[in-house]
Write a structure and sequence with these properties.
Two copies of one chain form a homodimer.
Chain A (H helix, E strand, L loop, with lengths): L1 E7 L2 E6 L11 E10 L4 H4 L8 E2 L4 E8 L11 E4 L2 E2 L5 H4 L10 E2 L9 E4 L2 H4 E3 L9 H7 L2 H11 L7 E5 L3 H12 L4 E5 L3 H10 L3 E3 L3 H11 L5 E6 L4 H9 L1 E9 L7 E3 H7 L2 E4 L4 H13 L11 E4 L3 H9 L6 E4 L1
Parallel strand pairs in A: 11-12, 11-14, 12-13, 14-15, 15-17, 18-19
Antiparallel strand pairs in A: 1-2, 1-4, 3-5, 3-9, 3-19, 5-6, 6-10, 7-8
Helix pairs in contact in A: 5-6, 5-11, 6-7, 8-9
Chain lengths: 339, 339
Amino acid sequence: MRGVVMYGPGDVRVEEREKPTITRPTDAVIKIAATCICGSDLWPYRGTDTVHEAPMGHEYVGVVEEIGADVSTIKVGDFVVGSFMASDNTCEICQAGYQSRCVHVVPMGQYGTQAEYSLVPHADGTLVATPAQPDSDLIPALLAASDVLGTGWFAAVAAEVGPGKTVAVVGDGAVGLLGILAAKELGAERIIAMSRHADRQALARKFGATDIVEERGDEGVAKIKELTNGLGAHSVIEAVGTQESMMQAIRSTRAGGHVGYVGVSHDVALPGQELFFSGVHLHGGPAPVRRFLPELIQLIWDRKITPGDVFDLTLPLEDAAEGYKAMDGRRATKVLLTV
Amino acid sequence: MRGVVMYGPGDVRVEEREKPTITRPTDAVIKIAATCICGSDLWPYRGTDTVHEAPMGHEYVGVVEEIGADVSTIKVGDFVVGSFMASDNTCEICQAGYQSRCVHVVPMGQYGTQAEYSLVPHADGTLVATPAQPDSDLIPALLAASDVLGTGWFAAVAAEVGPGKTVAVVGDGAVGLLGILAAKELGAERIIAMSRHADRQALARKFGATDIVEERGDEGVAKIKELTNGLGAHSVIEAVGTQESMMQAIRSTRAGGHVGYVGVSHDVALPGQELFFSGVHLHGGPAPVRRFLPELIQLIWDRKITPGDVFDLTLPLEDAAEGYKAMDGRRATKVLLTV
């Protein structure tokens, strides 16, 4: 089968890889319908993380090709969406809603879903079937549910977004934008998008942003304070993962407010004393997307949300290298690869 | 009047200070019945924080001596308990339960309650009167409510302690011990005290600890994991404020669990990537004691809790220097000063 392999920074190739086969009775193999490139795939692409000849991709939707003997909740032919972390969904941590930290967790990235097929461990716990075969226009939205939508949604939940609240969103990538969509769905009264790109601002507004702040860092914080009677936002979504973005998020939050952070932290050190006196709640990490999948799939199926809007470039799998280049150069927010 | 003044590290004196008088219509002056020495008073005593000729103390109970024209909820002669942070209790932040971050907050430490009298700003928002003049044996417990009990209680609430949960407590000072008491009152199923001092272990057990872990750092974490099926505690109370204690708390918490931290952070830097992948909730800071005062006073009044047990040395105000020395040398957990 064809699949994406990263050989090192900037070196992405599509080549022949071995088609996966079932090795455990709880496995499934799916034929990928669509996959995409994640903001986190840019960390190794830019050399921040080290890779060598690694299969790439952890977002996916597709059709079940084969199932192991113990798989019971999905069947061959089902159209399925799964999280970027495979989980048994039965352990104590999964049952508490933290499937991305399942005691038997398997990162899907190790299989590389930017390919024609993928193995999915813990198929029962990981995959959720759609009510029927989806219309093709729903596929991008379902694919978004696999990671970026689920992550933005978790960020909003972690930030305790709700009715009557003012929410600020740090980061205008796909996750930040879908954090805005989630905040809107969760009933936020006011949603402030921090963005300086006209196209992303437009999508932010479409998703429900009521205000745009172009300033960053201390100036951005001052602007959020100005818009919130000097107090800061009730809820802040952090969707970048740098020292600056984390501090911008913490400082934009009022005492007793909540920061939901989902940008994968790189070289971040939080100053204890400042955090202590900020009085904020901090919660985040790898999103337990599986917790939200049934609800998100239903919202998409009922055409109540359009998270597929974050894909602004669609390429065939064979052109994956061009997709990485476009995201790296910020010519695309999020690239969908058709398979 | 007589009052404690710290001249520098290790240099505590009791000397004549000017008796406070009302300057704003929302002020009160109280005659202190009892006050105490806080773990945080040791930071300047040990030279970690810088002070010069500073009045000391922020914990207090006493009788209202005089009130400003606008004070309406307390009257002269009332026996009152107040938080270590004076707050108006009407602003948006106070109403959300974060009175220690009131937009008009005044730290009581600047008045120095280790004295015969103290000014209390925002008297209506800060002070809570007891149902009647307390029996003298209740005074230590009411005094504890002013800071250490309220702080331990907040830590337990921040750590989302509740029925069915396993709680670990890092730190066996007065706050950690009262975090145990709070966890017990809030219905925790299992409470693991991390302590290596026999006397403190005994008090921990009296307050409700079901297990004692003597190990610290990585060994302590391993022990907590061992006691929790490899997962970590649901809720962890951090009541020290050092890098080691914070990391011990975070690492002892299961994914999706809650850390309530109330040790005043000194030289702490939290590694972002580890925090991200820990998946814990982090909340803490200066405890909004005022939020809990009515409930805590009632529990004490009804003799349901005995937080005054943390005082293991009682001295007259005049001997404050000896009290500091005893706490610094760990000969006393918490020193009560009678006035």
